[in-house]
Amino acid sequence: QVQLVESGGGMVQAGGSLRLSCVVSGRIFSIISMGWYRQAPGKQRELVALITSGGTTDYSDSVKGRFTISRDNAKNMVYLQMNSLKPEDTAVYYCNVETLVGRTRSIYWGQGTQVTVSS
Questions:
Q1: Rounded to an integer, what distance in angstroms lies between the CA atom of residue 97 and that of residue 81?
Q2: Is the pLDDT confidence value at 1 over 90?
Q3: Helix (H, G, I), strand (E, B), or coil: what is residue 52?
Q4: What is the average per-residue pLDDT within 91-110?
Q5: Quick one: how far is CA 103 from the chain centroid?
């Protein structure tokens, strides 16, 4: 089965930076998109950034200009560079991948990594 493992979370002061990494393993033949979502206490999970197989990116308005998503296709990895972090960025961040095998599209999630930004 496909597995996603995030790393790079932690605690940082406001204005600081963190780089999240996610490695995807398993039987993956085609990746439609890879992305990062986050969920803060009491809130729904929301999209942070997304990158498609064609390289198109999409960002939440709240992180646009501060976060950058990138990928390494050879390593099946996706990264999220987070700069100018704010306390409101505090959340559990989840890696996500959508795959295509034949006609079957599947979505997989990582276990999440905590990001805490102190004021």
A1: 17
A2: no
A3: strand
A4: 93
A5: 25
Question: pLDDT, tens digit, for every residue of 21-75?
Answer: 999 998 777 889 999 999 999 999 999 999 998 999 999 999 999 999 999 988 8
Distance between CA 79 and CA 69 in Å, rounded? 6
- Structural tokens at position 93: 């961040």
DSSP 7: E
Residue 81 to residue 31: CA distance in whole angstroms? 21
Q: What is the largest CA-CA distance in the chain?
A: 48
State how far the Cα of 101 lies from the Cα of 38, in Å rounded to an integer: 26
The residues that bridge with 109 in the sheet, in sequence order, are 96
List residues bridging with 79 in a β-sheet. 21, 70
- Phi and psi angles of residue 49, each rounded to the nearest 5 degrees, phi first: -155, 150
State the Cα–Cα distance between residues 59 and 103, nearest whole angstrom.
28
Of all residues in the chain, the percent with pLDDT exceeding 90 is 83
In our burial notation (b when 16+ CB lie closer than 10 A, e otherwise), range 77-106 reads bbbbebeebeeebbbbbbbbbbbeeeeeee
Of the candidates 48, 23, 54, the one whose C-alpha atom is nearest the C-alpha of residue 36 is 48
